[in-house]
Structures are given as structure tokens and as C-alpha cells.
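wait is this the right file?? whatever heres the structure
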């Protein structure tokens, strides 16, 4: 039987998201495995992995909000905006020249909708090539600035000073496409210093948190696929908190045939359609070409 569901993986440092997918294909003996948004190799934490038919949900899970725990180091900037790049600019920090209040005020300023320019070492595409491909060749290109959503941004540690550096930890709740590395750099710039992100862990992705996450070591210690499946969340559990609409038997039959639906009063741009027995049938969205509320199917769940 094909493994089906979403595995909340606790990604280890030193592995790419694709490395994790490759390993899980072997552990679950299936080719149908996909991740839900790249985590940089040195970043740890929650990486939802879709198995079997659940791979159809990957793009929706990717769009959900995420939370992170990070460390900001002020005093020098790097090529990659994290601790693994080459130093490009140094601004030694005098002890106590940055106060708790100054930092907290900057964090408040960066809460809400903000503009971000993705780092050169990122997978954002410009003219069909990823930015890191240009960066590795030393080619400078214009990077697209975009709006991202920061729902919450708080300092979670004391501010420490040592050897011309200032360090503190933060927690972030944000929307899709936010670069925490770039956020750390922006925090430093607003304080008047060069900065980078020196540590990062994703603590949740959508409804899945690090409490739910399982390590590769735990999965590899299991002797059978059946044992590993105990850590896989069924599709119904993953989507249970998404906006939903329950329809009668006649409409449910049309949904199962992939039909567009006529005018339906819904508050959400995207929602899951259930039958009267509580079984999820499909994911629909408002038809962007029609203003009267007609909806079109995005994904058949069954």
C-alpha cells in the first residue's frame, strides 16, 4: 500500500531539503515524496514532507504561515547574510551602545507588511536563473523587491556584548516568502550597524510544530514502513483547520466529477469542500474571472 500523508520532519543541519526527500524515498519505499518549501542546509526545524497522494497538497502547505527562532549578530555582515558566508563589512559594537529598548523599537517597526529584497544567495529567479547562480559567478543583477508579512517579531533573550559583537535571539511569525536572513540584516541597519543571522530554526509550518516533528534518526531506527507511518499525519488531519464548506449529496456528486460550482456564499478565496458525512472531497477557489462567487476546483482530494 502506498504511504499517504504529511510527515512533519525535523530537518537536521547539513542537509538540503532535497537530501531529505531522497532519504525518505528510501525509508518509505516510494518515489512520490515532495517537500513544502526549501530550508537552507544549515537551518534546522519543521519541514513538512508530503507522501503519495498528499503531494498534491504541497503548494497549499507552502503558502501557510511559519514561525522561526533565530539569533541576530550585530557587528559584521556576510555575503550570504548568515554565519556561513564571507565577511564583507565590519562595524564593531561598543558595549552597551545598543539598548534593549532600541532593539525592541526596531522590532516593532518591522512588524506588519514590510519590503524585502531577497539575498543574492537565494533561490529567487531573475530572467530564468536563480540568484545564487549569479552570485557564484560574481554577476550582479537587479533583485526584485517584494512585500512580505511579519505577524509577530519579539526579542526572546538578553542582549549580550563580546569582542565587538552584539547578540540576541528573536522569534518570528511570518507569511510565505520571508527571508529571516534579510530581516536580521535590516534590524542591524536600522540600529546603524552591519549584521547577519547567526542561527535559525523553523519552529512551525502551518499547523505543524516542532512538537509534532520527527527526526531522520528516529525514522531510520524503525524496522518497518508501518512503524514509520505512525509519524505521518493523514490528509484529513492536515487540512482540518482550513476554511471549509459542507455541501449536500447532489453537490458532492458534482464535486467528485470535478465540476465548477455556481454562486456559493463563501468568505474565503480558497476552501475545502466536504460532504455531509464529513469527508473532504476537493479544494476549491473563487474563480478570478467571475465576480458573482462561482468557484473552481483546484485539487481533487480523492
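ok assuming it is, sequence goes like this
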Amino acid at each position: 500500500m502506498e504511504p499517504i500523508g504529511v510527515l512533519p520532519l525535523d530537518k537536521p543541519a547539513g542537509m538540503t531539503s532535497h537530501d531529505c526527500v531522497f532519504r525518505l524515498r528510501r525509508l518509505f519505499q516510494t518515489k512520490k515524496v515532495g517537500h513544502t518549501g526549501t530550508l537552507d542546509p544549515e537551518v534546522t526545524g519543521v519541514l513538512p514532507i508530503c507522501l503519495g497522494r498528499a503531494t498534491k497538497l504541497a503548494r497549499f502547505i507552502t503558502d501557510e504561515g511559519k514561525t522561526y527562532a533565530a539569533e541576530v549578530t550585530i557587528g559584521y555582515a556576510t555575503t550570504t547574510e548568515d554565519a556561513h558566508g564571507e565577511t564583507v563589512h565590519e562595524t564593531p559594537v561598543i558595549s552597551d551602545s545598543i539598548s534593549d529598548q532600541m532593539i525592541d523599537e526596531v522590532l516593532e517597526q518591522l512588524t506588519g507588511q514590510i519590503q524585502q529584497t531577497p539575498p543574492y544567495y537565494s533561490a529567487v529567479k531573475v530572467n530564468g536563473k536563480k540568484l545564487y547562480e549569479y552570485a557564484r559567478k560574481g554577476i550582479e543583477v537587479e533583485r526584485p523587491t517584494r512585500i512580505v508579512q511579519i505577524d509577530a517579531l519579539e526579542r526572546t533573550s538578553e542582549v549580550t556584548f563580546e569582542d565587538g559583537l552584539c547578540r540576541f535571539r528573536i522569534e518570528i511569525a511570518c507569511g510565505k516568502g520571508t527571508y529571516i536572513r534579510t530581516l536580521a540584516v535590516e534590524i542591524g541597519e536600522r540600529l546603524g550597524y552591519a549584521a547577519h543571522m547567526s542561527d535559525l530554526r523553523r519552529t512551525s509550518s502551518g499547523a505543524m510544530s516542532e512538537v509534532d516533528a520527527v527526526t531522520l534518526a528516529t525514522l531510520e531506527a524503525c524496522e518497518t514502513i508501518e512503524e514509520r507511518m505512525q509519524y505521518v499525519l493523514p490528509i484529513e488531519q492536515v487540512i482540518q483547520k482550513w476554511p471549509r464548506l459542507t455541501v449536500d449529496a447532489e453537490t458532492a456528486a458534482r464535486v467528485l466529477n470535478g465540476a465548477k460550482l455556481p454562486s456559493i456564499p463563501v468568505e474565503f478565496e480558497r476552501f475545502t469542500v466536504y460532504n455531509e458525512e464529513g469527508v473532504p472531497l476537493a479544494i476549491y477557489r473563487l474563480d478570478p474571472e467571475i465576480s458573482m462567487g462561482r468557484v473552481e476546483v483546484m485539487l481533487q482530494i480523492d
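The radius of gyration is 22 Å. so i think its the right one actually
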